[in-house]
Every structure is written in C-alpha cells, then in structure tokens.
Please model this.
Amino acid sequence: MGFNFESNKIKGETAIDNRRLNNNVSQDDTHEIIIQNAGLVNIYNLRGSQRSSIFRKVFQSSLDIEIPNKTCTCTSNDQKYVLQISPDEWMILSNSNEIQGQIIELEKKLTKVHSAINNLTDQYQVVYISGKKSRLVLSKGCSIDLDPTSFGLKDCAQTTLALTDITIFCTAKNSFTVICRNSFANYLIDWLEDASLGYSYKLLGF
Amino acid sequence: MKTGNRRVHKHPITSQKVVIFTFDGKKYSAYKGDTLASALISHNIKVVGRSFKYHRPRGLLSIGSEEPNALFRVGTGSKAEPNIPATQIEVFDGLVVESQNRWPSLKFDLGSINSFFARLIPAGFYYKTFMWPSSMWKKYEWFIRHAAGLGKAAYDHQDPDRYEHLHYHCDVLIAGGGLSGLISAYMLGLSGAKVLLADEKNELGGSLLFEDDIKIDGSKGIVWAKKIEQQLSDMNNVKVLKRSCVFGYHDHNFLTIAERCSDHLTESSKTISRHKLWKVRSKQVIIAQGMHERPLVISGNDIPGVMLSSAVRGYINKYGVIPGNSVLVCTNNDDAYRTAITLYKAGVKILGIVDSRNEQSSDILKIIKKYDFKVFLGYVVSSIYGKNNVRSVEVAPISKDAKDISALPFKISTDLVAMSGGWTPIVSLFSQSGGKLEWVEKEGFFKPANHNQSNLSIGGSNGNFDFQECIDDTIKKTNEILVRINKRKNTKFTMAASYPKFSYTPRNIWSVPNGRIVGKGGKAFIDFQNDVTVSDIHLASREGYQSVEHLKRYTTTGMATDQGKTSNINALANLANILQKPIEEVGTTTFRMPYTPTTLGNIGGRDIKNLFDPIRLTRINEWHNDNNAKFEHVGQWMRAWYYPKNNETFDETVAREVYSARNSAGILDASTLGKIDIKGVDAAKFLDLVYTNSWSNLKIGKCRYGLMLKDDGMVMDDGVTSRLGTDHFHMTTTTGGAANVLNWLEEWHQTEWPHLKVYFTSVTESWSVISVSGPKSRAILDASNCSIDLTNENFEFMSFKEGMIENIPVRVFRISFTGELSFEINTPARYGLQLWKKLIEVGKEFDLTPYGTEAMHVLRAERGFVIVGQETDGSVSPYDLGMGWIVSKKKHDFIGKRSLERESMSASNRKELVGLLTDDPKKVIPEGAHAIEKGAENLPEKNILGHVTSSYYSPNCRRSIAMALLKDGRSRKGSNVSIPLLNGELVEAKVVNPIFFDPNGVRKNGI
Model:
C-alpha cells in the first residue's frame, strides 16, 4: 500500500458540509430516528480469493478476526467489522488505531498471494442510523428487504439508498451503519432528513 | 345549499354525519360514507359529464373504478387533479369538484355542436381531415390541441403535496379484498406467512359491499367482511392497505401499488404523503380483482339514466340512493333479476324485465315467482331515447339468429334502464404479468390460462360466478400457494355461503339490432369514454384496420383513463363478428399498467427539487462556495466554473484566470478526475490490452498518458496512469468517464481475460487533487514547505513523488494539462480543504489565481490538448485526432486494434482534427458551428466539411482560437473555410495545426 494516509500532527475532516456541524451531541434514544455522523472511520478494501486457505489463514492471524465465509454477511469483534461485499471482496471497518499496523502486517504476508488492499478511509462517509423507525425510513429508498427476518445482525449488502450507492450493515436490532461515497454524503443526509419528516428524528454530529 | 333526498327509508347511511361539498360552484349535502356518485344520485343529478368527442351528455354508468363517464376535476388551484371518477371520490366536508369537458356549463355545452357533425368526424378523422394542405397544419393543430384531452391539469405547476415511495417485501401479495381476497388473506395469515392485501376501495369486501342477499358463514356479507378485516388487523404478519390500487405488475413479481393516503381528508399535511407508491417484491401473487359487468350495445345506450344493472343495485344497497322512478331492466343473464328484486324491495316501479334469452334458468324462475315481474322473454331493448335523461325505450322480439328484430318494436316510457350484458373477469394484472388468456365461449369472456410468473388468479378474476364456487376455488388455490411458500396446507379450512342461486350464462348479442342498418338511427356505443360506436368498428374494418391493435389505434377504443374496462370485450366481439372469425382468433390488445390512473407526483415521489438528482461535491467545495465561484454541472459533479471578482463578466474572469495561469500561477480543484487502483502480477499486461500504447516498459515512479478505445476503434477515454510498483498502477480517467471505465475494465477482465491476475478498485474519492500550474508553481510549493525536491533534475516531467507539504501527506505528479510547469498534488481527501487553503495563503505573494473549468478548457486548447467527449463523439479514431503516435505498432493486441485496421479507417474524407484561426482575430466562433467549403455559402448544406468542437478567446495568443473536425482536415491546412452562423453572418477562418501556444512544448519545464 505504501502511502501513509495518516498525519499524526493534523486532524482530517469528513465530507459533511462544515456548516451543518452541530456539536451539541447528546445520547438521546427517545427519538424514532437518529442519524449520526460517524466521523472518520478506518476503512480498508480487500480483494483476494476466498478459496485460498493461505489467504484465509493470514487474514485471521493478522487481523485477529475470522473472515466471513459468505457474500453479504459480516463478522465483528469489539474493534472491527469485516463485511464480505462480493465473492472476492471484503470491507474492513475499525475505529481503532491498531488496525493500521495490522493491515501493514497483512499486506506483507500477502505479498506472494494474489490480492489487493486499499485504504479507502477517505473515499467514504459513514453514517449511523438507529431508532425504531429506522427500517421504515430506509425502506423508503432502499429496495432490499430490510425486515429483521431477512436483514439482521451479520447481514450486509451493497445496494442503493435513494439515488446513491451504499454499503449497509445491521449492527443491532434497529441500528444500521451506512457507507456512501463522500461526494454523495450531503445529498444522502438531505434525503435521510426528508424521509424522516413526520417522525421524531435527530441529527447528531452534523 | 341543496339537501339530497332520494334515499331508501331508514338506510343505515342516513345515521352518518352530514358533510357539505361543492359541485360546479354550488354547495350540496351528503353523508359521510357517500361517494360523489352516490351523493349526486341523491340530488337527482343525471348529467355528470360530457363525452370526449361529441360532447354528449353523460350520466353515471357504474359504481366502481371502471366508470367511463363521470370524471371530475377534484380540488382547486395547484392541488386540482383532473379525470377522477365520481365512483372513487369519497365525499368529505369541504370537497370541491368541477365537471369537465364542457363550456360554459354541464347542462348547456357549446361543444355538443360536434354531435351535429358526427358524420364528418368518424373514427380516424384526424388522419383523413388534417392531412391537407400541410401548410394548414399549424392552424389545425391549435384546434386539435384545444379539443384533445379530458380534464385540465392544475394551473399552478408547483404541486404542494408530498408523495413518497416505499419498498416492501412479502410472501404473498393479494390484489383485491373482496370475498376471495379476504378468504385467501385470512388463510395465509393463519399460516404465519407475510401477507400484503391491497384493495382500491376505502372498505374491504368488494362486491359484498353492494349486495344484500349473500351470507357467509351465517353472517351478512358486509358484516362477515368487517369481521375478517378485524381478524386480519390482529395478525402481525398481515398488512392491509385500503384505498390502494395494485396498478402495475412488472417482471419477477415486482408490483406497484398506488395508495391514496389523504385524498379523503379535509386537511392535508406537509409531512404526511398525499399518495404513496408501494414497490412490492412478492414471492407469490394472488390476483383477486373480481369482475366487471358489461354494458349492452344498444343504440342510445349512453344516455344518462342507462346504467349497469349491478350498479343500480349497489347504489340502493350500499348508499340507499335510488337512481330513477320507473325502471326498465334489460339483460341477457340472470343477474339483473337480483337488481329487479332490490328495486322492488326499495319500492321502485319496475316496468318490466327485457330478457334476450328464450328461457330463464330454473333457479331464477323459483326465486321470482313471488314478485310478479313482467318479463319479456326473447325480447331486446332495441333503441333508447332521451337527451339529458332516458325518456323511453323501444322493445322488440329478437330473431333466432339474433341478427335482427322479428317484429316491429313498441315503446315504453321510463327514466332508468338497468342493463346487464354479462360479466368479464378482470385479467389486467394477470395479463401484465405475461399470462396468456383463453376464450370461454359459453360465458363470453377471456379467463387466465397459462401463468408466466408466480401467481394465481382466484374468484371472479378466474372466471368463477357462483359464490360457493368462488370460495372453494379460493381455498384450493390458497392451499397451492401455501405449498409454494413452504407452509403446510390447511386442509380443514371451509367456508359456506348461502345466497339465491343464479345462472350467469348470458346470451351474448354483441350488437343489439334495431331494425335498421348499422350506422342508421341512434348511436350504439362500445367505448363510452372515447365515443367509439359500433359503426366506427365497421368503418375501421372496411378501411383495413382489422388487426385488433390497429383497430384500437384507429378508433381509440380501449384507451384513455378507464382503459376500456367496460368496452374491451364488446369491441373485440364486434370486430370478430364483422370479420366472421372466432373471438379467440381476433385476440386482445395488450394490457398495460396502470390498471387505474395514478398521479405523476406519485411516480416522481421525493426525487424532486434538491433531491431530484444527487449533486456530488468535492471536499474543497466549501472554499469555492465562500469565494464566489460559479458552478457548472459535470455529470453529477458540481465543479467550480469560474471565480468572478467584483463586477467582472464571464469573459473577463476567464481571460484573467487563463492569463495568470501562464504568467504567474493558477490553482485548480481537479478532485473529480476518476482514479482506479490497479493491482496484480498481470496489471501491466492488462493495461497493454486496454490502452493503445505500451505499459509493460513503464518504470516505477513514472507516468504515461494513455488512450482507451472502444472495440470499434473509436476513442472512449483518456488519462494519465502511473506505476506505483512492479504490479501496481494508479489510473486516472476523465471526470464523466470514471464509472464507465471501471465497468469497462471489469467487463473485459471478467468475460475475456479472467486468467489475468489483476484487481481494480475505485479510489476516485480517496484523494483530493489540486493542480498548481504556471511558471511560479514550483516556488509556491517550495514556499509551502513541500518536502520533495522539485527541481527539473530531480523531479522529471511525467513522474511522481511522495512527501509532505508541511504536515499533510501528499503524492505529487509532475504532469500538465496546461502545458505549463505543473504539479498535480494528491492528498487524502480529509486534508483536501486544508491543503487548498494553505496553498492559497502561501500563493498570495506569487499571484496564485484559482481557476475554474472554463479556464482549464481554454488553457488546454491553447496547447491543442483534446478533451474526450468534446473533440470526440464516439466516431473519432486516434488517427482522426492526429494521435497516431500513441497507437503501438508493435503490440500483438489491444481493444480496438482490429477495428483500426479496417479500410474505412484510412479512407479519405474522414473528419480530422484541425485548428481554425478566424480572419477577424476577435471573432469567437460558436461551438458546434458547421464549417463549409469557402464560397459555398449559397448551398451550405451540400458542402458541410465538419463542425467546430472547441472555440475560445485566448488571452495568451491575443486572438480567438478554435478546433474543428473537418473532412480531410489535415490536407486543408493553409486553406480557408467558411462558417455560416445562424444570424446569417459568414465567418472566414484559416485551417491550421491545432496547437496555438508554445508549439514546441518547452514551457512544461518552467520559464
């Protein structure tokens, strides 16, 4: 990967228009919809062969988490989520700083295995959506079945929300993480806010 | 205010709240629960609309969404909506409706003059009448446009209402909540399946709502329906949608439902949708839409006061309103006898039952014994008379072959004719799903035969008349569906109906004779909404329109808002009669969505205004916004176009920006360029295949410009690609081409060269790209604490280096799209804005000028660099662009190589890219202008050489410059061409090399 995306002396910014920033963040779960700016989340894209046992083994030993074994599912631990978004593609999300070292180690070990790792932290905006109406609001623009029986914990999907490509996964009963390209972030937030009209909703960190 | 009174004594609706509505400016009363149709009947209003072509007065025909005549404009101002059937309008306090297609009033309509000219305006008259002379078309058009259409749309184009979409997935979608739909929903609900039941009415029960002679499991039909509705609402796995019409059946069991959420409410809200579009994906679909009664095709059958028999019965039973005083019933089956019984019970005078059959069923004989009806067996109503309401009818015996009447008719005076011409299963959704129909001769209808998607039709939709048969068929079919969704069959489920037995088998006389030849006497209507008569069908057939699809287009039968719900079978059968063919050979026209009309607002949903299409913004957008940038759309991107200062015009701004970039330095936000990370041991090999030039020999740390062709050899995209490692490349594409190029690479990799080990990852938005260009660019970077040695010796043109600018990590490419010394700085997007601001700050003392996309275009044109999509249009090869140097002669293969070897590619007369210099250096030719041979201005269209692709005023050349694609352009160098403009002006220009500034390209190393 080579390029170091981090600067330890200067903080980066997310794609959300600064004028939307509202710092009065309070944890308030009485709202039917809570839309939250996740800030900068480390995101890595990994390509490789699911069938390769070395690939799977190296993955697990470097990242200390099992690789999902089916497309559209994910594995998780306290530090990270691993989403299998296509038969040969994974997305790794983590808020922890340890991930950078782990990824470097993974890449070293995969030098001789056909694979590709990309740091896509800057490519995306991550938004958390929760509340008891979250499934309903998302259903207004997302064509996959978001019923808890078919999209629950451990499920993930690459799909569209309104007119934007997203990757979405379920983190708790009515909680979702939505990942979109950062150039679409302001559109997506506008859309989510519009779709939430009529319910009690709150935007956090915007 | 007018109070209605034509009510059945002590009908339950009279205990409901009184509501007031306005119809054509006058206030009327009704009861909550009334439809506009029932309310109008209660006020004895007979004429409710004017027909489309002849402007004939029309009354209510039906009681459901099939209504062709009674169309109204509902609401006022920007909320008004035209063409809503009165049968579907729920009356509420404050409802405002207006009649349509009439002027000045419904009762006296000047347009009805058309009736006198009916002979001059038969089917297809548009095609015949307005063909000649063609110069008159503009005049005709004005009249046709004014005469065409039904109601008027809202005056104000801003629809104030909210419309939303919702995606829904279920095991079974049931279209229709009548007897069959309810039983099916209940059975499926018990199984635990996820069920969605949608019905277009505001109440569930379907035809049960309008009947009083049916009991299901011991309860009156309407009571039973309420009970089942309650039980369904207690089931968490069942969702019931009322006022919701399943209007579209698309591929893979995807269906669309239009829900009317607030049309029946006095108050509307900004947060609640007026309509909602449900997009449903269902594993199985049950079609339970029921049946429609057919009108009889009799001359004068469109006069107000001629109604469908079941509708007359329904208005009395459901709403307690009586549409006439003395009624004549005419029928070809038993069902109309039920209407006679209902009328009898309501105390209405029945003049007789005219039954075209020669004998009644034994069942009906038993039932009507006690009523002492006067029945004319073997008779028909041959003509109906009246203007604004029925006055009288002629009744005559019908011949055995039903081709003529067998004795002179006699007259009966009446004010209401209740007619039944048999029943037609509603097969619209089934047909939309791709199912095939079969003709049932005995009953005279089409019914579902071969299913194309995962669905079943039940009840009336499947051609069942008898209530118990409907129930049994429903239970059987629902069990089949249960098996399909892996649930256990419910073999014990039963339900019993008690009702008087009838025979619905009709004697179909598709056009009732009246003793005259076709076309003489009153008009016998087939399609009420489009004014299509039996004689129109004859005329169309005589003129050769004998395919049913041609007939539909020529006569317009089956078109418009009702989509021929009451007319289709009558039209087909009449065509079959004329052609002397069986009906199944004539076939049906194509059923298309929507089953009933829905609003455009509902289809648009929330994709309006700022949500119409996503606007993509770069991470530096905030600065552009704050610094007075004007923007332009580039695909979905919003890019800074130019940055006017004070009162500068567009031209002044661009000239300033272009000048600064060459004389001091300019800074451009180039973040939108597509970027693709390419990795794998075969990466270089793959690039050799997709680009025209060679990549395997590119050294690590170096960049190269590449041209990508489609397989037809035409230029598709271009960009600079850099080698990050042995098996690792960073590709850039045009802004608009980013997604296409990634798809292109994946497609070729996955379908043609899957053996090549390479991965592609889009990294477009990982990087902010800032291009600093101009003689002072190096100094600006140095002054910004750039850690990279930027000297020409240590940082060659077409190479890249990584480092820091102060604390910000950067990857700097020494490439140039302006021809100046130039650095394209890539930084992780999170630092984009900070780096931009830093460079702007440092750049102040170096006269660093931000420039937009317009200046970028001028700068590259001065140097003769092409833009894919501007100089190319999918028909331009690299040779046409004069870029043969980039096409490898050594490579064994690359996409487009074979096409480039075609003879036509080297043929003379191909359009080639050249430069144009106008004789008048100040004259800027409009882009897109055509160039012609000099001196050919009298015959310009015969002498077109090509067109101008780019054209600007160049401040650095101090004159206008242009690029153009001209036939044999390169051999024309030195000669002159003419460019005729739209205003008649003729511009003269000299053909030159398309490089206008720094022809030797020395400035890229700085000056």
User: Anything to note?
Assistant: The radius of gyration of chain B is 38 Å. Chain B touches chain A through 55 residues (CB under 8 Å).
